[in-house]
Write a structure and sequence with these properties.
The protein is an alpha/beta fold and about 290 residues long. About 35% of the residues lie in helices and about 20% in strands. The chain has ten helices and eleven strands. Strands 1, 2, 3, 4, 5, 6, 7, 8, 9, 10 and 11 form an eleven-stranded mixed β-sheet that branches. The protein is globular and about 55 Å long.
């Protein structure tokens, strides 16, 4: 395990009436029935960060896992469990966590992904040095349970309207953003499996800037079963977002063809979808970052 090179801030337990010093970063997870082994790996990858001044907010969205019990095994007071009181969904969970966060800098994290040890440090230093950007993200290695080899996902650089319309978007769990600017934009809207795309479009229309670092800072878990979530019936939220925002983003004919591409992809057999994604979307195979 890497030794922290940035000292942790003093972290206190939640005590009513006692004001705590805000951490540099608030890491936000929304949890619903994650494999407990994967969840523990994800949490541990955050606790092993080189930058230690953060809080980890895990939203309990009414699943079967006992998050209080899981959190207690780590014995780390930076972990805070928020309860939805039932299954309210990803968007409600993320918006609730953002409101509850004590830092201006919010890092997204999924409950089955694994962060590189320097992920928070790299993103945070870039945000401090580049106040012109509202959202930054990184490249990722898309891996499965079967192998530590995965394929490169994402592309570096600033993302404008053309990028957003043609699928060159931030990898959602890789990003860090400025809390105040996300709240001012209206937070996440409830578009099934397309809440992130809608947010990027809203921010661009509000003249906020998005940038992706040319570094791999996240291992992004995608198993064959996850491709069932990409069937056409689960893409309607994405299609509706594209139809709503493309005219405002100045879409041309080629941009609209990407909607047709999404429809076609949602009708393909899973094995063919995986094959085409590996060949046409993802980069070469690489070892997971550690």
């Amino acid at each position: 395990m890497n030794q922290p090179i940035i000292a942790a801030a003093q972290v206190e337990n939640e005590i009513p009436g006692v004001k705590m010093s805000p951490p540099a970063i608030s890491v936000v997870m929304a949890e619903f029935n994650t494999d407990p082994i994967h969840l523990a790996q994800s949490i541990q990858s955050m606790l092993d960060q080189t930058l230690q001044d953060f809080e980890l907010l895990i939203v309990d969205d009414g699943g079967c896992n006992d998050l209080q019990e899981i959190a207690s095994t780590f014995g780390d007071p930076r972990i805070r469990i928020l309860h939805n009181g039932g299954n309210r969904g990803l968007v409600h969970s993320l918006n609730s966590a953002i409101h509850s966060a004590r830092s201006e800098y919010i890092a997204r994290m999924d409950t089955d992904d694994i962060a590189a040890p320097n992920r928070l440090e790299k993103l945070y230093r870039f945000m401090l040095a580049h106040p012109e950007f509202t959202v930054i993200g990184s490249l990722a290695i898309e891996f499965s349970n079967k192998s530590r080899l995965g394929r490169l996902l994402g592309s570096a650089g600033e993302k404008g309207a053309s990028n957003l319309m043609r699928g060159d978007v931030p990898i959602h769990p890789s990003v860090m953003f400025r809390r105040s600017e996300i709240i001012a934009a209206g937070l996440y809207d409830d578009h099934h499996r397309a809440e992130d795309l809608a947010l990027w479009c809203k921010l661009h229309l509000a003249q906020k800037r998005i940038h992706i670092l040319d570094e791999v800072l996240l291992n992004y878990r995608v198993n064959p079963a996850d491709y069932q979530k990409r069937r056409l019936r689960n893409r309607m939220g994405e299609i509706k977002v594209r139809l709503a925002y493309y005219p405002r983003l100045g879409a041309g004919l080629v941009d609209y063809l990407y909607i047709a591409k999404s429809v076609i992809a949602g009708t393909l057999p899973t094995s063919l979808m995986i094959f085409l994604r590996n060949r046409l979307v993802l980069g070469p195979k690489r070892e997971m970052v550690a």
